Each structure stands twice: as structure tokens, then as C-alpha cells.
Amino acid sequence: MNDMSSTAIEPLPHISETYAVGGDDAVPRVRLSRPVEVAVVAAVALCLTAAVVHVAMVFLYVAPSNTVSQTYRKQIDAWVYPYFEQDWRLFAPDPQSARQEISARTSTVAPDGATRLSGWIDLTAVDDAAVRHDVFPSHTAQNMLRRAWAAYADADAQGAGGQPASQRAAMLQAYLRNIAVQRASAAHHVNFSAIQLRVVTTPIAPPSLGAVPNRPAASPSSVRYLPWWQVTTHDV
Question: How many helices (H) and strands (E) in the chain?
């Protein structure tokens, strides 16, 4: 029978053990090998660099216009849009002045070649229902669809002939379309080939500060129909 106590156990190639001297017992301390240490340091440095760049880009985006933000506006917009867009300014918050109700309907080509249209799906109402009575409401339900539409409208994305007016407009159009397609697919659970959005904009009346003579009446709601957008399997 072999004596197991006499068998030498070699340490793993990437981990070595050192011992801290203190008291009667030696405390083992694991030390990573040189390649692993370099990899860890590089990963930490990369994460810190990305965090610093992100904070700097967002700060320049929300800060008042200055020489740096004007010089690097294209790079800042490319970093911020569409996922990190901010709905506020550093020294001048911009609250909503109108409420948009966004609905969608879909078009399906039947086997006989006929085109069938669905009813209007109120996407805004679906988001509102997901937020109402929720102690920790989802950021997606609160802001994704609303901010996608605001960015699309602010960019004046609809050019002549129904085509996007710029590369950024095309990106925002695809972003808004993909959100609408995902919401409509979740509501209908059917395949469709095209989608159309309807946006009803209702101005928010200013707060009542008592009897104000000659106060202008609230503007009526306006309705905008976007063109039909084709849908592919990659959009769902």
C-alpha cells in the first residue's frame, strides 16, 4: 500500500500559493499567474474607460451648448442615440407639453391574395396598463415607445416620397418600427407583412392658477398617420 503522504502534489499552472506569516499558523494566500493578472487588469481598465467615456458623452449631451459639444456633436449623437437619449437638460428641464397616444394596425396577405387589415392596437394604453399600480414600473413601459416617437418626430424623419430624410432618420424609423412590431406581435400573436402607426397628439393644458381673464382655449388634438412600413422576420 502506497504512502499517500509521500506523494508530491503539484500546484495548478496558473495559481501559486504564498503564505502570510502571522502567529503559529501560516495563512495560505492565492496569487494569480502573470497572464491572468494582466487579463484582469486589462478588463478592469476597459470597463473604467467605457464608464468614463459614457459619463462624458452624456454630460456633453445634456450640458448647455459649448465649444466641445459643438465640435464633437456627430460623435456625441452617435454614442447617445438611440439607446442613451436623455429627456432633460442640465440647467433647463424640458417637461412634456403634449401627450401622444400611439396606435398600430397590421396588414396581412391572405392565401387568396387579399389584403386583410387588423383593428387599431392602442400601444400607449398597453404601456400605461403595465405601469399603473406597479410599485417598480419598467423603464421600457414608461419611456421606450414615447421617446422613440419623440426622437423620430424631432428629427423630421419623413422625407419626400415617404423615404427617410437622412441616415439618422432611417435609424430612428427602424427603431420605432421595430418597437411597434414587437408590441403588435405580442398583442396579436399572428404574422403580418406591414404595419402602420397612428399618433394622436393632445396638448397638455397649463395648470390652473385661479381665475385668469382671457385665457386661451386648449388646442384641439391632432392626428397623424405614418406610411405603411414593410415588416421582415428580422423585425419581430
Answer: 7, 8
Do residues 197 and 103 make contact, with C-beta atoms less than 8 angstroms apart? yes
Question: Per the structure block, which three cell numbers stand in for 160?
Answer: 419626400
Instruction: For residue 196, give the 3-state DSSP assignment.
Output: strand
Q: Which residues of 193-228 are buried (b: 16+ CB within 10 A; e: fewer)?
A: ebbbbbbebeeeeeeeeeeeeeeeeeeeeeeeebee
By the 8 A CB rule, do 206 and 98 touch? no
Q: Residue 130: is its pLDDT beyond 60? A: yes
Cα-based angle 164, 125, 130 (whole degrees, multiple of 5): 110
pLDDT beyond 60 at 200: yes
- As a whole number of angstroms, the distance between CA 222 and CA 236 comes to 29
Lowest mean pLDDT among 37-46, 151-160, 223-232: 151-160
Sign of the CA dihedral running 91, 92, 95, 98: negative
Domain boundaries, the chain: 15-80, 98-203+220-230
Length of the chain counted residue by residue: 236
Q: How far apart are CA 117 and CA 105, in angstroms?
A: 7
pTM of the model: 0.59
Q: Which three cell numbers stand for residue 185?
A: 406581435
Mark out the alpha helices in the chain (DSSP H runs): 34-62, 67-71, 73-80, 123-131, 139, 145-154, 167-188
Q: Are 178 and 199 in contact (CB under 8 A)?
A: no
